[in-house]
């Protein structure tokens, strides 16, 4: 009986080790998807704040505050992902794609914050449309590892 338990324990350790180490490409895709989901939430918040400003449901100052907080959240998601180390060509491709998407989203949110601060209604309208596409792209990217 002790041998069975011993072999069972060793088997569990081997499985745990194999699952824990995993494929580096898969791990990077998973981290990229997680970062994309976090970024999609932040970009969606910024988009909603901008649209609420355009619909006269928020003044520029509270809308700008929401966008500023979304900008910070995007920065955190991006910097956390940037710490990843791609080890293969496939993981490098994934890393570059996710990084570019996160950078584009961060740029759009920053531009939206500036447009709100400057009272540029036309700029806000244009950036809200851009953010709608950016947010959708981030959501799709966030689904890649599910």
Give a description of the structure:
By secondary structure, the chain is mainly α. The chain has one domain (26-142). It contains 5 helices and no strands. It has helices at residues 2-21, 24-54, 60-82, 89-118, 121-142. Helix 2 (24-54) packs antiparallel against helix 3, helix 2 (24-54) runs antiparallel to helix 5 (121-142) and helix 3 packs antiparallel against helix 4 (89-118). Residues 76-95 are annotated as: Disordered. Residues 77-89 have a biased composition (Polar residues).
**Cα radius of gyration in angstroms:** 21 Å
Whole-number tally of structural domains: 1
Please tell me what the overall shape is: elongated
Helix amount? over 70%
How many DSSP H or I helices?
5
Number of strands: 0
Class based on secondary structure composition and strand pairing:
mainly alpha
Q: How far is the first residue's CA from the last residue's CA?
A: 40 Å
Mean pLDDT: 88
Q: Classify the beta-strand content into a percent band.
A: under 5%
Report on the biggest sheet: none
Give the H and E element order.
HHHHH
Q: Which segments are poorly predicted (pLDDT under 50) over 5 or more consecutive residues?
A: 16-20
Concise summary:
Residues 77-89 have a biased composition (Polar residues). With 146 residues, the chain is mainly alpha-helical.
Notable traits:
mainly alpha; 86% helix; 146 residues; 5 helices
What are the SSEs and their pairings?
Blueprint: H1 2-21, H2 24-54, H3 60-82, H4 89-118, H5 121-142
Helix pairs in contact: 2-3, 2-4, 2-5, 3-4, 4-5
